[in-house]
Design brief:
By secondary structure, the protein is α+β, with helices and mostly antiparallel strands. The chain is built from 23 helices and 13 strands. The strands form 2 sheets. Strands 1, 2, 3, 4, 5, 6 and 7 form a 7-stranded antiparallel beta sheet that branches. It has a 6-stranded antiparallel beta sheet with strand order 8-13-9-10-11-12, with no helix packed on it.
């Protein structure tokens, strides 16, 4: 009876085999799984042994790759370096149309593939044939208990082309690429997402393939289904030598993808400073004061790409440049994204704290709303750009309370920021914002920090009234428990109970009545 550990190892092997075998390839449907040791009648023979036993071609997975060998005694034997190995879980190649034949050739145009990089090969011998896999012009096969290799071999060929332009570009195989071109495949053929071989090779940094495709006049400015060009894809991945080659070929750096991002913007957003410098040196560069440079600079900040920011600052960009639609500066974008290094870098370059975005929030407020005490620490302690007594710190505290950002609120309270400061626009305190928005934790934290429970805003409303009017029961309970006055009136003469009734909130009405609130004439 098989022990438990053996069963587990067998299961793992079967899973690995299935995972590797899931990849698509040439003649994939003609590889058949061997079950219960039964070889299919249509299995392809590579010859025979001296006793007349046929040798069948097998394929299995080992070390995360597909390997090929020959079937002996119900197992697939293959080479692993200088060692011979075997697997009982394998496939055999079948042929119902008799289209396969062994040829002594160096061409892989019609060679039968084992996987994306290996092909079936055979070493003919006087006594018997040895089957293996071809890679880098050597046939690797198992013989006599060891692993061998040879440059003298035969290749199994069929009628279906093994060379595919797209597949060659994906795996970076120059020989396959050239074979596909020789076979007349369209140089700008596309995959399922509209990418050409040049786009794929550029994205992966296969420079030799890029050169070959350009030589054969592949379109350098073709766009995929998302509007990306080869230049944009290479820029995103930081393939600077490929970017140089594409630019020399005249690739249009001004083309933007469907998100509005050019190669420059894409490089900046992904922190590819070498590519950025290359694009800026090119004669097609739009200039440091252009809309493109501004967008790239702001995206770099939003993604926390400090090195990209350095490139633009060195080139002379205005660190306070802002997006014409959102009104956000680089410092605001970095603050909203909690990117500490970028925040510190920009503050050291005198980025302004004064501006607000289109929603009325400053960089410091955005940092508070991002709930990052580390980002706030950079403003208040590491650079001393904001002091606890500054109006900016008070705005940040109110924003943290309003949006329920506990880490930010706790940090600002600890720094001694005034918890009773008022908003210039409506007279709201942090406690009022917390109550109005139903931020129970923020309400509790502010009460413990000594926030004034009964202060009134420009409309005469207290935190209790705002909680009652907005059906924020938990915050209301916190305020009642802390001793908030129940009978204060706003400028229209309404109490918290009046506002609960007026707005149809039975939950806050009941809590107020339970606490002893009554209608005040």
């Amino acid at each position: 009876m098989r022990n438990k550990s053996t069963s587990v190892l067998l299961l793992i092997g079967m899973i690995a085999f299935a995972a590797v075998s899931s990849a698509s390839g040439q003649y994939e449907e003609q590889w058949k799984r061997v079950r219960n040791g039964k070889i299919p009648d249509e299995a392809v023979s590579a010859g025979g042994r001296l006793d007349g036993t046929p040798i069948f071609i097998c394929r299995t997975s080992y070390g995360g790759n597909r390997v090929a060998g020959r079937v002996l005694d119900g197992k697939c034997y293959f080479a692993d370096g200088r060692r011979e190995r075997s697997q009982s879980n394998f496939e055999v190649l079948t042929d119902t149309t008799k289209e396969f034949r062994w040829e002594r050739t160096r061409s892989l145009d019609y060679a039968v593939a084992v996987d994306d990089e290996r092909f079936l090969c055979r070493i003919p011998a006087n006594d018997e044939a040895f089957v293996g896999f071809l890679k880098d012009d050597r046939c690797y096969y198992a013989a006599g208990g060891g692993g061998e290799s040879s440059r003298e071999y035969e290749v199994l060929t069929g009628r279906e082309m093994s060379a595919d332009l797209i597949r060659a570009s994906e795996i970076g195989n120059l020989d396959l690429l050239r074979a596909a071109i020789r076979a007349g495949q369209l140089i700008d053929k596309r995959n399922s997402i509209g990418r050409t071989a040049l786009m794929i090779a550029a994205e992966k940094g296969h420079e030799a393939l890029v050169n070959e495709l350009i030589y054969h006049r592949a379109s350098v400015d073709a766009r995929d289904d998302a509007g990306n060009t080869a230049l944009i894809l290479a820029s995103k991945e930081g393939k600077d030598s490929v970017v140089q080659r594409l630019l020399r070929e005249g690739a249009d750096a001004a083309i933007a993808n469907d998100e509005g991002d050019t190669a420059l913007v894409t490089a900046a957003a992904n922190g590819r400073e070498k590519v950025l410098r290359e694009l800026m040196r090119d004669e097609s560069f739009s200039g440091i004061e252009s809309d493109e440079s501004r967008r790239a600079f702001l995206k770099a900040a939003a993604n926390g790409r400090e090195k990209s920011l350095e490139v633009f600052v060195e080139a002379g960009i205005d660190v306070n440049t802002s997006d014409p639609f959102t009104g956000r500066t680089a410092l605001m974008e970095a603050s909203a994204g909690k990117h500490g290094d970028a925040i510190e870098y920009l503050l050291e370059r005198n980025a302004s704290l004064r501006g607000v975005d289109s929603d009325g929030f400053s960089a410091f407020q955005l940092a508070a709303m991002a709930d990052s005490d580390k980002a706030l620490k950079i403003f208040m302690e590491d650079t001393s750009a904001v002091r606890s007594s500054d109006p900016e710190a008070e705005k940040g505290l109110r924003a943290a309370a309003r949006f329920g950002k506990k880490d930010s609120l706790g940090y600002l309270i600890k720094q001694g920021v005034n918890v009773n400061s008022r908003d210039d626009f409506n007279g709201f305190t942090a406690l009022m914002w917390a109550a109005a928005e139903g931020r129970e934790d923020s309400t509790e934290m502010l009460i413990k920090a000594g926030a004034d429970l009964n202060v009134q805003n420009d409309q005469g409303e207290t935190a209790l009234m705002l909680a009652a009017a907005n059906s924020k029961t938990n915050s209301l309970k916190e305020l009642i428990a802390a001793g908030a006055k129940l009978d204060l009136k706003d400028r229209q003469g309404r109490t918290a109970l009046d506002l609960a009734i007026e707005n149809g909130h039975d939950d806050t009405r009941k809590e107020l009545e339970k606490a002893g609130a009554g209608r005040v004439p």
